[in-house]
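Narrative of accomplishments. A recurring question from our advisory board has been how the design workflow behaves on a single, concrete structure rather than in aggregate. To address it, we present the structure tokens for one chain from the evaluation set, followed by the sequence designed for it. No filtering or post-editing was applied between the two.
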């Protein structure tokens, strides 16, 4: 489904670039980094995934975040948003050149957005979201099973495909962000990549996190987390 033009809901009346979602989302993070790389001013409008607010559902029929509001254009889905930004604001690219590298980048972005987020989400949910946001207990057995069984094969794959230096395709692209977002969120739940087992990936993750566009997004996340603390 492509982007659709709608009459902006009440809280989108200002015609500035807005991202609907919460900074801690891996998918909001990816869009924020792309906007930072391209030097586009934007504002994050806090919306939780699954919100039943009718204005939100008018622009996100699946109830997912993020949604980009660019004037009267609304676009859901982080990958579609990033492709739109790449085409609409091409001066600073966030995809490699050439069809072969672009195809590889899109797959690695998809792998990070799906498999990596899927296996790391329980650590983030159980050790951060539940106790911090919902004030509930933590299922330690669930976390242990993920860390010991589900996560290592994924990290083995990532260790095999990340570069020894720099980024996946020379300069930072959307795939780089997706390839570390799951472990960033797991880190909020107390998980740390074991550099003795996965040295390439641990070093790669640190490099990507230190990129100015990523560091800016992570600072916004730290402020969000600080606001959640009692």
């Amino acid at each position: 489904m492509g982007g659709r033009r709608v009459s902006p809901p009440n809280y989108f009346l200002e015609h500035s670039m807005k991202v609907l979602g919460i900074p801690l989302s891996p998918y909001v993070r990816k869009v924020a980094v792309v906007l930072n790389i391209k030097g586009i001013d934007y504002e994050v409008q806090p919306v939780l995934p699954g919100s039943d607010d009718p204005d939100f559902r008018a622009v996100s029929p699946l109830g997912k975040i993020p949604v980009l509001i660019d004037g009267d254009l609304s676009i859901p889905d982080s990958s579609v948003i990033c492709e739109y930004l790449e085409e609409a604001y091409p001066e600073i690219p966030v995809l490699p050149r050439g069809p072969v590298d672009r195809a590889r980048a899109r797959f690695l972005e998809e792998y990070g957005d799906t498999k990596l987020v899927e296996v790391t989400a329980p650590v983030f949910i159980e050790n951060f979201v539940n106790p911090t946001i919902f004030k509930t207990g933590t299922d330690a057995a669930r976390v242990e099973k993920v860390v010991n069984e589900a996560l290592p094969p994924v990290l083995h794959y990532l260790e095999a495909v990340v570069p020894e230096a720099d980024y996946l395709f020379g300069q930072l692209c959307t795939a780089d962000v997706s390839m570390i977002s799951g472990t960033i969120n797991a880190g909020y739940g107390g998980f740390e990549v074991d550099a003795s087992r996965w040295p390439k990936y641990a070093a790669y993750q640190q490099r990507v996190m230190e990129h100015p566009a990523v560091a800016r997004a992570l600072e916004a996340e730290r402020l969000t987390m600080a606001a959640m603390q009692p």
